[in-house]
Amino acid sequence: MNKQLFEDSLLFGSNAPFIEVLYEKYLHNPMSVTPAWRNYFDRIQDTQETITENQSRDAIVRPQLMSHVDQDYSSEVIRIDTNDRKQIAVLQLINMHRYLGVRQAQLDPLRCMERPDPPELDPFYYGLADHDMDTVFNTGSLVGPDYATLQEILRLLRQTYCGTVGVEYMYIADVEQKRWIQAQLEGKRSRPSYSPEYKRHILERLNAAEGLEKYLHTRYMGQKRFSGEGNESLIPLLDCLLQRAGQMGVQAIVMGMAHRARLNVLVNTLGKMPADLFREFEEDHIEELPSGDVKYHQGFSSAIMTPGGIVRLALAFNPSHLEIVNPVVEGSVRARQYRLNDKLGNLVLPVLLHGDAAFAGQGVVMETLNLSQTRGYGTGGTVHIIINNQIGFTTSDSSESRSTLYCTDVAKMIEAPIFHVNGDDPEAVTMVTEIALDFRMRFHRDVVIDMVCFRRLGHNEQDEPMVAQPAMYKIIREHPGTRKLYADRLEAEGVIQAGEADDMVQAYRNAMDTGINPNKSVCYKYKSPYSVNWAPFLKPTKWNQKVKTGLPIKELKYLALRLTDIPDKFKLHARVEKIIDDRRSMGEGTLPLDWGMAESLAYAALLQDGYPVRISGQDSERGTFFHRHAVLHNQSPEREDDRIHVPLYYISPKQADFAVINSLLSEEAVLGFEYGYATAQPNELIIWEAQFGDFSNGAQVVIDQFIASGEAKWGRLCGLVMMLPHGYEGQGPEHSSARLERYLQLCADYNIQVCIPSTPAQMFHLLRRQMIRPIRKPLIIMSPKSMLRHKQSVSSLNELASGVFQPVISEMEKLDTRKIRRVIVCSGKIYYELLAYRQEKKITDMAIIRIEQLYPFPHEDFQAEIERYAEADEVVWCQEEPGNQGAWHRIQHYLLRHTRPNQVLGYALRPSSASPADGYLARHKFKQNELIVAAFREKI
């Protein structure tokens, strides 16, 4: 019967893999196959229980037809008999193990995780019976023998997909990627084969992981360290990853992780000296940083020796906001790849370590995953490692921590393969690490390793987990530990002798007593030739130091010419053509410069000086307010390469690189990415632009935990620029305020700069100053909206040529200073409304001063300006924002410092409000007018 079946059936020989893929297509969408095949599969489905729609949708995501198959079977008569049905049932069974075998995998070291029992993994579900077990079937695309008995096929499938490794990958659309993963797993049946020497090395790494935790627990009882006990296999995992990456040519690895097991990684992976860690526990060292941070948030840099040479390691500093470090690491990696001209991501590798509850629960994970394959943010794929303790803080029931079966399900959105592995099988952990890294390096896509383990102690060492999780922790207390289990296994295999594992334990403890790190792969005092020199920015520099930011008129005209040189046959949109024509006139000096032109000239000048420029935001190429037009689009492209033109690419032959990116609709991940990029690239102007200033609300964690405090906590310098459109134009509460008060509240220790430029020339000099001055501090710009086209908010070429950024701008009209009785102080757009009112009412005894830099406050400049008005007995601060918002609460103390004892300090502002602005245009105009009138009222 078997011989006849092999010869006669369509389902054997070279056709079997084709039928298998065709059936996958049918399950996803019956209309995607020809009518004859659809009828065939329909009739087969009628003879057995069908896979439900939900199961099909959950398991199958658009498998593609194999490329070599092009036959048309629509005209053939397809015979169906019992043997055919059984053969296709076997193919179904194979495929369902690839889809759902993970649900029967033995992943939980505690054996308390409930394993679903999918009926699709049972041969009887497909009409196969006990008497079919010895029948020989074609194995389709299953790696191994072409023909095997059903019993043998089942054994191979269960070894591969239902052991201590469980894999999810069949949702991947790319057939090559799926087949590659199948070859890796099915070829070795998910069972690694390591030499005795390497097995001893794995044991040594497990011994180091457990040894450090027990040493710290004994020596520093009760102190917080967020122990890695229960997930010791992480250390051999990382060792394998780093050594293999180095062998594959990787030169640098940037890692990000939260606090769980961080101290263990610092010592046993990166090579931090135990003596240095002990001093941090004993707190007998003096912090060099203004405030510092706890030891389990600290970063570290080192180098390790690998078969491929020395690999530079960096563990990013991380606050307690868990996953927020993810985009920061990606940005840092992208900057390093840029320095090495590593366009594919073969030389610099990002590695992110996650907690299971955080990976499923924190939105920045999804945002960062979504960056992975985009033009401006891709890093060639990230290796994600999940330390799956099966418990989030105190939650162990998955129904309380997520709505999905696995904590990793969010990674399926980018079709990343997911390798689940039992942490008590360190050899399986090592094997999936090798496969995962190979996948990343081959396909340059993200990959996930979900190491299922447990947490022996509480959330921290002062927490008692038995209070909330008695059942789980009764099992944990009886667990001997991964090191002990593996040592016993190796002793049974004859790899080590009796008592040898105990000797290793004592040797590690002796090393800890001396404070020496026994990891011999660490290269101390190694200096990478590709490291960035931050020394010029570490020297003390005065904030009010003047630097030359202007350019000769001739050079400005040349840059303007390059910015407006449009290729022949490149058709611009009519509105854009008018803008470019006006910019030509601006460059010739016949029109005053607007904001868009001044900003473009600043970028062009920096590029010519050798400073790369990178701008990102949700509409940065064009500009949210239709003002930038850094990328021009051909309205009638004749060739594929004529679709766009970027004038800033063509400033000069030896110019630096320019990049402008329309980011995805994310604030938190994108701003975190740009921060990470800026911390690794001090000589590049990095700008993140919010579509409206209040959009930065979605990235507040990045602002609070990194941008404002990164230098104080970790000594991390950063020259990132944030452009936040700000101004009250009657657009309602959501798009008026960039929440200036929040940034001013964060100001201390000269940590950031907060500026509100009111002219195009000010923006030009401010951007130039950010790079030319030897200071690298974040710059927050309250950037304009309506001012972009305000007739009075313009500048001349001379102001760009001879000027500098002015932290304080004097009264611009010729007023008799002896007759000034009131000085109105303001920032931003409201200046022009105050000026218009004063001109309309012909007021001559009130001067208007603009403060363009609110922090660091320009005390000397403001003092010199206020002293010009010796007869003024009133100083009024005027702002658009309500009294509980804006700059008033911060600025009043500075103003008081510079007012005379006989001067009165007053204010003109909106009443305090829970909302930033009014929602009705008429109400806005009424209040705005009241505000302007109040600034000029007779008595304050």
UniProtKB/TrEMBL annotation:
Cofactor(s) annotated in UniProt: thiamine diphosphate
The keyword DNA-binding is annotated on this UniProt entry: no
UniProt GO MF annotations: oxoglutarate dehydrogenase (succinyl-transferring) activity; thiamine pyrophosphate binding
Domain of life: Bacteria
Residues of the Transketolase-like pyrimidine-binding domain: 593-790
Entry-linked InterPro entries: 2-oxogl_dehyd_N (IPR032106), 2oxoglutarate_DH_E1 (IPR011603), DH_E1 (IPR001017), KGD_C_sf (IPR042179), ODO-1/KGD_C (IPR031717), THDP-binding (IPR029061), Transketolase-like_Pyr-bd (IPR005475)
Any GO BP annotation: tricarboxylic acid cycle
Entry GO terms, CC: cytosol; oxoglutarate dehydrogenase complex
E.C. number: 1.2.4.2
Function of the molecule: E1 component of the 2-oxoglutarate dehydrogenase (OGDH) complex which catalyzes the decarboxylation of 2-oxoglutarate, the first step in the conversion of 2-oxoglutarate to succinyl-CoA and CO(2).
Name of this chain's protein: 2-oxoglutarate dehydrogenase E1 component
